[in-house]
Amino acid sequence: MILLSVKDIRQCINGQLIQGSDDFKVHDIIYHQEKIDQNKLLFLRQKWKIDWEKISKSTPCVVVTDIIFPELEKIGMCTVIKVENIESAFWKFVDFYRDQFSIPVVSITGTNGKSTTKDMIKHILNFDHKVTGTKKSANSRTHNLTYLLSIEKDTDAAVFESAVGKPGDVILASKYFKPTIGIITNIGVYHLDGCKTPEAYIQAKAEMIQAVGSNGTLIVNADDENIKKMGIKSFKGKLLTFGINNRANFKASKIQYDQNGMRFELTYKKGKYSIFNKRYPVFVPGYGQHQVLNALAAIAAAFEMGIGIKESASRIRTFSNLPSHFECIITKGGYIIVDDTWSSTPSSLIAAIETLNGISNGRKKVALIGDFKRLGDLSLEYHYQVGEKIAEIGVDTLITVGPLAAVIAERAKTRGLKGDVYSFPDIQGVELLLEKILDKNSILLIKCSSTNQPIVKLKSKLKRG
């Protein structure tokens, strides 16, 4: 964060200096008291179980409060700022800090592809820009303040993920980041424990329209049917689209699987009815049509920030995917493991199965999958639907682990999956089965959430050989 004095902060939040010095410099700002330390400022929003001893041991520090506690006044070397309302003061500070910068700020939401698209944008920009943004997939709302403060005087651009756990999350993130560019990668189904219905989940993602506003740019997937339900036509800002199957400003065609990645031709169409189209060859590391869509979204965002498509295509060739994002490893046993265990949703599993077929090259296709989480009351229905889709796409061997994943296996089998089907209530017995069926002519897809520790531990063991 930029270095701020107590006076700077006090004036922006209309605070009164109770004790301490206006000249004291703040190095970091927090709102969780357990993170208090020297030279940090704490907004005392949580007024229960205040650890006065920890605050005392963290001096010199600064505390903003709307209640003057006797315990606080007794702490030496603690600068205290009194405000009328702590919540109002906190958001005044957020507005003040964000308004110090006039830079492109990208906010990305979507069921799948957020982290990869974010990292692709950062990769393209990092060649000649100083960029900050979400680290790995740490995108929960508790990180918003920390990420905002990562913007400094010499930052050229920022790229953040806006995850949806419940309605209002994208709007909340936008209060911190005030994005100038918003991206919606796709909308499948997830977080129904918080959103309750698929319709509510779609609308929670649609908050990006409001977050960007009429002065911003919105970049959306033209192929996604759920995005079409969001009322994009009413958006008053600049709209850019990307896709494979439908008309789009950034469209991929002639898609081919290549060694370690995908080749395609990108056609750029400036306007909806433009007849002057420019074409660019692109290679993106990583497999699958979903990876092509991620690349299209990233190139579109970079284009909006002034980087030409040809330049972006050159830079994206050296992109490295995050671990466990469809990561291919040749084991000591000679078979290939496709590690896709970062997260799992119905749409990402279907994309993984389709991609498995695309890269198998005649190998025996084996899929090991776990339960889906966070699908609420519709969990059973979506497990059924995935089973039906796997039967349609096809694999040589399907192995499921967990009671809900068993529903996938059952439905795939009854819907005519021609391959072998094995269903396990837990991880016991899975390794033994794999030892029997895997050989040098096999490719094994392992698909689950990173929180599914039994499968993740087995994956790690198999990768070590």
Describe the structure.
The chain has helices spanning 6-12, 52-57, 70-73, 86-98, 114-125, 144-149, 169-177, 192-195, 198-205, 207-212, 289-304, 309-316, 346-359, 379-393, 405-414, 430-437, 453-464; strands at residues 4-5, 16-19, 25-26, 28-30, 40-43, 61-65, 78-82, 105-109, 131-133, 157-161, 181-184, 217-221, 238-243, 250-258, 261-269, 277-285, 327-330, 336-340, 364-370, 397-401, 420-424, 442-447. The strands form 4 sheets. It has a 9-stranded mixed β-sheet with strand order 9-10-8-11-12-13-14-15-16, with helices on both faces. A 6-stranded mixed β-sheet has the order 17-18-22-19-20-21, sandwiched between helices. A 5-stranded mixed β-sheet has the order 2-7-6-5-4. It folds into 3 domains: 4-96, MurE/MurF, N-terminal domain (Udp-n-acetylmuramoylalanyl-d-glutamate--2,6- Diaminopimelate Ligase, Chain: A, domain 1, 3-Layer(aba) Sandwich); 101-316, Mur-like, catalytic domain (UDP-N-acetylmuramoyl-L-alanine:D-glutamate ligase), CATH 3.40.1190.10; 327-464, Mur ligase, C-terminal domain (Protein-Tyrosine Phosphatase, Chain A, Alpha-Beta Complex), CATH 3.90.190.20. It is an alpha/beta fold and 465 residues long.
